[in-house]
Amino acid sequence: MSADADVQALRRKGRIVVVGASLAGLRAAETLRDLGFTGSLTLVGDEPYEPYDRPPLSKQVLLGMEPAEDTALPRKRDIDAEWRLGVAAASLDRAAKHVRLANGDALPYDRLLITTGTKARPWFHPEEAALDGVFVLRTRDDSARLSRKLAAGPRRVLVIGAGFTGSEIASVCRERDVEVTVAERAPAPLVGALGEVVATVAARLQRDHGVDLRCGVSVTALEGDQAGRLRRAHLSDGSAIDVDVAVVSLGAIRNTEWLVGSGLAAGPRGIACDAGCRVFDVNGIVTDDIYAAGDVARSPHPLFGYQFLSLEHWGNAVEQAQVAAHNMVSAGPDRRPHLWVPMFWSVQFGVNIKSVGVPTMGDQLVIAQGALTEERFVAVYGYRGRVIAAASFDSGKWLGFYQQQIETGASFPPDYAMVDRRTDALQPVDPAFPDPRLPTHEPTVTLTGHSPTERCVQFIAPRA
Fold first, then answer.
1. Is residue 263 pLDDT above 70, yes or no?
2. Which residue has the higher pLDDT, 442 or 257?
3. How many Å is the Cα radius of gyration of the chain?
4. Cβ atoms 308, 272 nearer than 8 A
5. Which H/E stretch holds residue 405?
6. What is the SS3 string spanning 167-211?
7. What is the DSSP string of 229-292?
8. For residue 133, which phi and psi values (nearest 5 degrees)?
9. Distance (Å, whole) CA 240 – CA 219
10. Alpha-carbon distance 129 to 248, whole Å?
């Protein structure tokens, strides 16, 4: 049978399983049906809910403007799928081509799409994490519980970590007139995403709005009373804070544990796949029947030096899911790459913060428009003489232009006249990102064997 005939047979009566009832999973399923796939379609989700929208969870839901149950994603069409909700995927058998669920069921597939996303990184001490008043924010249930707690008027909230989610939670607290302390071990909020030059503006925003921002410190312990309620937090500088709510906002963990032993290139940083969303195995060989999309996927992007990017962005999840769905039911010559330019947005303390490109690649920065002192500006990041990213505070209307600059490899620093460009911000400076040479993960693989016929990749456990 020819490749074209195989694809046509797959479209008519193939079995596709999507593990991850997420934004990416839903949009992929819709795309498959749009493309004429009439076979069986199964969506697996570990939560009991059909796909919902996550951005409102740290904004409207926490502010009490929208109930968590109203965040369900709108459907573009009927997908005629079997939903397996409230049961997680437990393992993958690539040889048998089936996904085993936590309840013991096995789902056979001809094509598998993994869209399992991420989960919140928990507090490092389980007994402290179990205290009444300690929260994380990732799921619909997390947001509903935290919203109820904030509505009850706690005396003081501690936010542990000042990334985008932590900063948004702090903003919600101040909007609710709740006292909040933010503990961040970096020199400023958002420093890992935007660099210290821009992050100083984020720090000023927080303090101007009444946030007790403490940088250069970490939380060492959470203390509860005899009834198991949170009462105090201890910091690395020796101080202690009386709090009755703590929100752990220390980033995300990609949901790949169920793939241990599957032979796929899946680990703490996500699932490695090619630009067409096909997953690699541990030997770096691309699979033809397993795909990944959304937050859990890592894929190379030609615009950014073919770096493997893991993007926790709403728009990326949608576009990557559509590319994956298209490629799953297309012959080789008809497949297309995922070339979405990363974009991100956040609203905090009344300011819209948006970015395009990959700011963390930047080795230089200029303030192309506006001024840092006015908290209304566009910062343009350069890498080896070309524009690589831009970030804006209340100036998002310009980012479409900078996206074009990124896509066309425009020279850096910008050599054209800009609207509202200040004479004191013309010279490029170091954006001051954390040292990228510092390791964030232990090695996870070793090479075994000496003969080419024996040489392969083997996973190793991280050091304790």
1. yes
2. 257
3. 23
4. yes
5. helix 399-407
6. HHHHHHHHHCCCEEEEEECCCCCCHHHHCHHHHHHHHHHHHHCCC
7. BEEEEEETTS-EEE-SEEEE---EEES-GGGTTS-BSEETTEEEB-TT-EEEBTTSPEEEEEEE
8. 115, -5
9. 9
10. 9
pTM for this entry: 0.91
For residue 75, the number of C-alpha atoms closer than 13 Å in the C-beta half-sphere is: 8
Return the structure tokens found at 232.
């105090």
pLDDT reported for residue 433: 87
Structure tokens at 337: 């790459």
DSSP 3-state helix, strand, coil percentages of the chain (rounded to 5)? 25, 35, 40
Find the length of the chain.
464
* Spatial distance between the Cα atoms of 459 and 464, rounded to a whole number of angstroms: 15
Could you tell me the pLDDT band of residue 457, with boundaries at 50, 70 and 90?
A: low
Residue 126 contacts by C-beta under 8 Å, 6 or more apart in sequence?
none
Question: Running DSSP on this structure, what letter comes out for residue 86?
Answer: S
Handedness of CA 36, 37, 41, 46 (dihedral sign): negative
Residue 398 to residue 392: CA distance in whole angstroms = 8
Task: Tell me what the mean pLDDT of segment 26-54 comes to.
Answer: 97
Give the type of residue at 323. V
DSSP state for residue 425 in the 8-state scheme = G
